[in-house]
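Q: What would this chain look like folded?
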Amino acid sequence: MASGEDPFGCLKLASRECLISQDHRTVCPKCQLSRKYFCYTCYVLVAELEGKVPKVKLPFQVDIIKHPKEVDGKSTAAHAAILAPEDVRIYTYPIIPDFSDPSKVVIVFPGLNALSLEELSKKRQGTSDNKDKTDTVEGPNTTEEKDTEVENVEEQCEKVREPPLKKQRTEEQLSTPFDRVIFIDSTWNQTYRIFNDERLKGLQCVILKDHVTHFWRHQRDKPDTFLATVEAIYYFLREHHDIFVGTAYDGRFDNLLYFFSFMFQIVQRSKQEKGKQKEGKET
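A: My prediction, written as structure tokens:
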């Protein structure tokens, strides 16, 4: 992100005029409780903003497991659920989703066996290379093998007929060794209780590169690389794109920080106003 007063200035964010003009509180269309922009318990927009806020499509399922003591109104997990409703689910611990294939699931946590996405990519590439060597052993050209060759030719023809966007998405899915990613939404001191749950044992741990947080509720005595949940999801997607997709990043996930960047600016302006008031009293 860009440095300076606006760390989100380099992102391709949708217009936030609808948020700026939302100058009053209203009610959640589901629970009827008072809300300003969205309901952080029902994960829906207020009626006035419906159809005006961007939606983000993710390349895999994201499951957020939230600690029961995590305050809903202070968590940024809701941002992800509202902006990527097709791909993000939030569960309050002790509820944990079922995984039909744990080998296709990773959890973002610095466990003992944790790998970076780059290391995971190299590990997968090594597995693929070994498989390719096994598959290329020569043998008699049987009728079964001829049938396979015909199927391969037909498959190649089908790839040529596929639209470019569909082809790109298919290649992206094939290159990624997971289809679900778990994030734990809690303070650092509460995280281990969830991570040590038997239902999460054996999952591949993944760690992110160091990124500086811009969260206004910084955890006391923790480094500035401790990210808010929506920040962690965003940076995971950016790293995944750079490593597994390989094409130049086009801003497709930037709107995951749509609410986060807007609220950051509100908090900054509030701090500046308080600073001016304090200076005025001292002079």
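Confidence is low (pLDDT under 50) at residues 132-174.
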